[in-house]
Design a protein that fits this description.
Helices cover about 50% and strands about 5% of the residues.
Length: about 850
């Protein structure tokens, strides 16, 4: 290197004789053509070697030295400089740094222009096809868009990244990012620009690279990063914002580049956004207009309909439908005008998997099985033995321990073992973990499925008009049609009325009604509230939900079809507090967290204690022992004497009621957990118990449905049909928010307000000694043991025999004549026709913890984990 002053001055003197240093550089690098005679071979080789990157010092380092040289920009002035001194300063616009910057900006502008054209070209990979389908929406991914953008327009991505993320949060390309941990505010998350700033001295090492070509390679892998945690639940992801900005810029460049904007339009439509919002967001380039969205939906509907009609020919599908209601309010009524309920029917086409439809849905096989009349063998013993009691009690023990794990931070490590236990030794019929259910929404209709005739019109509309099947084709194989209890009841009534029809399609014998589980769970939730509310609305009885509702300031009402979210929250929150109180009673401690800090118990030991809690506090035996006049069995710890001046009894009625409430609530929790976990076998195990509880509580229609289900699975459904029903009764969904990167979020799930309520409830239970035996304690509320009442009704009466006799000649005649008349008159389940205030969503599992969708929406949580849903 030329570091000595003498040789360098000599070279400069030679250059000066021919002109300036700039003239020399122009002559050195200017080449008019390869055949230029003025350019010697030595000259050409030296320039080629230097510009070709084969020398130790590359051109970028030289340009960087020129840019960072202290001679390339004016010398900074002192604050005390006089006007005369300021006039002597050089004009910065004439100096090298400014001109190099302008030149670089111009080059970048040309590069971005070319990259944007490439990105929007037909080969760019981001243009929508002319025949757009729902696949575009289902497979939309901002991560894949970033991948294409980085390939086609890396400079643009790099500039947007630099603008969005400070250099302090960017790491070197060789750094390792832990993708399993949330990004703390001080974390470095993308590679920094290694461009040398004026404060960085490079004179000693001119070979320093001014910028790495891989400086923005890592953002792509960080799309799946968890959102940052914090009290404000900040869900922003800078990479999502970068991609969205890029898509908005491309739309500004070309109005036909509207893939993302169309997706946003459909999302707004799905969330019933006002048309005015389309106008505002469209002005910003975030979505297309309302008219364009509506036209797109028409195109998507047509493409989906074409696809569904092709799939329908294979008969590997089931249909689910229910009524939809919207109140049309007249805000400024004229004479005779009033509010009206606009009713219709919405349906869904679900593609079946895991079974050959020709084998599973063969009508003749089912008819031959029914002709054998094996359902005559249905008895109390058959129904009772359908319950896998060992699995049920073990699952209840796992949930009991799970509540403790959620409460005690030091036991977090156990949750994974509990989840594994439910997935292995306690699994009955789990759905495939990797599977995602394929479903298609069908067109809505104005048919009223609330009547028998209306259901016939709905089925005809779906099968003949929408699926475009002819009657002969539709009647070849069984078709599962799902709905709530009222829907399946009316389908069965329709089949009874048309049983004598000689034509295959018109008899509807090919329709296989299947009650959907969400409504059955809702019915059990209503039963639990009704049984354990206290008929006299005594707010002083801690064993009643009336007391808990008042204590927690909830607004749950003991009515038919209670609001789902509040009712379930009341039941589960009460159960949670009760289970923790039982742990304190068994472990003889007032502080569970402190207890486990001082004592170490293994998993098996904890499971054994949980089983003891289930045995004592969630069983019919525990309920009966609490009704004894003494505590000789020793199941409960003795409490203080009951000294209330009010009514007295010879037992502990409050403790007896509490045991029944815990048992019923934990059964419901196991059902919801099994559904969310994708184990239909465990869910059906609870339903086998519900056969008795529904019967004991007077819910005859659900009892009949479960009796029919027992006959179907015990005697009539082939193995292939059973497998098809079990594998498709639940559907597994993938989160709609995956594309925006709203994924797994660490930290506690429980809300602060709920925790305060649980602490208040736990304190109240402790004060009342709720889970201790106190002879004579009562508030004149006696909860009915619906299970025991159902056992007596099914074992000691002719209920089973009457059902069998009624269905021998026609399997659809599961309800008595009085029930059919009530159904046709629209007396039963009238509440279903009310306008829904909010869309009910299913419960979901997060890291082994069952959460309601209401809780998830409140804390802004979602995930890419599998969620199984009862339709």
């Amino acid at each position: 290197m030329y570091t000595q002053t003498g040789p360098l001055d000599g070279i400069l003197d030679l250059i000066k004789k021919r002109g300036t240093l700039g003239d020399f550089l122009i002559e050195l690098f200017t080449v008019s053509s390869r055949a230029d005679a003025s350019r010697s071979q030595k000259h050409a080789q030296a320039v080629s070697k230097f510009l070709g990157g084969t020398t130790l010092v590359d051109p970028a380092a030289i340009v960087n030295l020129m840019y960072t040289s202290r001679d390339s920009f004016p010398i900074p002035t002192r604050k005390s400089a006089t006007p005369a001194e300021l006039k002597k300063r050089s004009d910065h616009m004439r100096m090298a740094r400014y001109k190099l910057k302008q030149w670089a900006i111009g080059v970048v502008e040309e590069v971005i222009d070319a990259e944007a054209d490439e990105l929007m070209s037909k080969d760019g990979g981001l243009r929508l096809p002319a025949d757009i389908t729902w696949d575009f929406l289902q497979h939309f991914s901002l991560e894949s868009i970033m991948s294409v953008a980085k390939q086609k327009s890396p400079t643009l991505v790099r500039l947007l990244t630099a603008a969005a993320i400070p250099s302090k949060k960017r790491t070197s390309p060789s750094s390792t990012v832990n993708l399993s941990q949330p990004l703390a505010s001080s974390s470095t998350i993308i590679p920094p620009s290694t461009a040398i700033t004026p404060s960085m001295s490079t004179a000693a090492n001119p070979t320093v690279q001014p910028h790495s070509s891989t400086a923005a390679d890592e953002p792509l892998q960080l799309f799946s990063q968890p959102a940052e945690s914090g009290l404000g639940h900040n869900r922003r992801n800078p990479f999502i914002m970068i991609v969205v900005t890029l898509l908005m810029l491309m739309n500004a460049r070309n109005l036909q580049f509207t893939g993302f904007q169309k997706l946003m339009g459909i999302w707004l439509f799905a969330n019933t956004a006002s048309s005015y919002i389309y106008t505002i967001l469209g002005r910003m380039g975030l979505c297309v207009s309302y008219t364009t969205t509506h036209n797109l939906l028409d195109d998507l509907s047509q493409s989906a309909q074409d696809m569904i009609r092709i799939k329908a020919l294979q008969h590997a599908f089931l249909l689910i439908y229910d009524n939809i209601n919207c109140m049309l309010r007249v805000w400024d009524p004229e004479l005779g005008e009033k509010d009206m309920m606009d009713s219709g029917t919405a349906a869904t086409f679900v593609e079946l998997e895991d079974r050959d439809p020709k084998m599973a849905f063969d009508i003749d096989t089912l008819e031959r099985a029914r002709a054998l009349q094996k359902r005559k063998s249905l008895s109390f013993d058959v129904l009772y033995e359908r319950v896998k009691w060992d699995v049920l009690h073990e699952a209840m023990a796992v949930h009991t321990l799970g509540f403790l794990v959620q409460h005690v931070p030091g036991l977090d490590y156990i949750q994974e073992s509990l989840t594994k236990k439910l997935w292995t030794s306690l699994a009955v019929h789990r759905m495939q973990q990797e599977r995602k259910t394929t479903l298609y929404p069908l067109a809505t209709s104005d048919h009223d499925e609330g009547s028998t005739g209306g259901n016939q019109k709905v089925i005809d509309d779906l099968m003949l008009r929408q699926l475009h099947l002819n009657k002969d084709e539709a009647a070849k194989m069984l078709t599962i049609v799902g709905g709530d209890q009222a829907t399946t009841e009316k389908i069965r009534t329709l089949k009874c009325f048309l049983d004598g029809c000689p034509h295959g399609y018109s008899s509807y014998h090919w329709v296989l009604p299947l009650i959907q589980l969400w409504h059955m769970g809702w019915a059990d939730l209503e039963r639990i509230l009704s049984t354990h509310w206290s008929k006299s609305n005594v707010v002083s009885d801690i064993s009643s939900f009336c007391f808990v509702n008042e204590k927690l300031g909830r607004k749950v009402k003991n009515i038919k079809r209670p609001d789902f979210y509040p009712a379930q929250a009341l039941v589960f929150d009460t159960l949670h507090a009760e289970v923790l109180d039982c742990w304190q009673e068994v472990l003889k401690t007032d502080n569970l967290v402190l207890y486990f800090e001082q004592n170490s118990l293994g998993l098996e030991e904890l499971i054994a204690i949980a089983k003891k809690i289930v045995y004592n506090y969630m069983s019919t035996l525990g309920h009966e022992k609490a009704l004894h006049s003494d505590n000789s069995a020793g199941l409960f710890q003795p409490g203080t004497s009951w000294t209330n001046s009010g009514p007295r009894c010879l037992c502990d009625q409050v403790l007896s009621n509490t045991v029944l409430r815990m048992r019923d609530s934990m059964l419901h929790y196991e059902f919801q957990h099994a559904v969310a976990d994708g184990d239909i076998g465990r869910a059906m195990n609870v339903m086998s118990v519900w056969t008795f509880t529904f019967c004991g509580s007077g819910k005859s229609k659900y009892t009949n449905e479960l009796l029919e289900l027992s006959c179907n699975f015990e005697y009539e459904y082939s193995d292939a049909l059973q497998e098809a029903v079990l594998n498709n009764w639940l559907y597994i969904k993938e989160s709609l928010q995956i594309a925006t990167g709203i994924t797994k979020k660490r930290g506690g799930h429980q809300r602060k307000k709920k925790m305060i309520g649980l602490k208040l409830l736990a304190q109240t239970m402790k004060e009342h000694q709720l889970h201790r035996y106190r002879k004579g304690r009562t508030y004149n509320h006696e909860a009915c043991d619906d299970f025991e009442a159902g056992v007596i009704a099914l074992d000691k009466t002719t209920r089973i025999q009457d059902f069998v006799q009624r269905t021998l000649t026609n399997a659809s005649n599961i309800h008595g004549a009085e029930d059919i008349q009530m159904a046709d008159a629209g007396i039963e389940d009238a509440e279903y026709n009310d306008e829904m205030k909010e869309l009910p969503l299913p419960n979901i599992l997060r890291h082994g913890v069952l959460l309601s969708s209401a809780d998830m929406l409140e804390i802004g949580e979602d995930t890419t984990e599998m969620d199984a849903i009862a339709a």
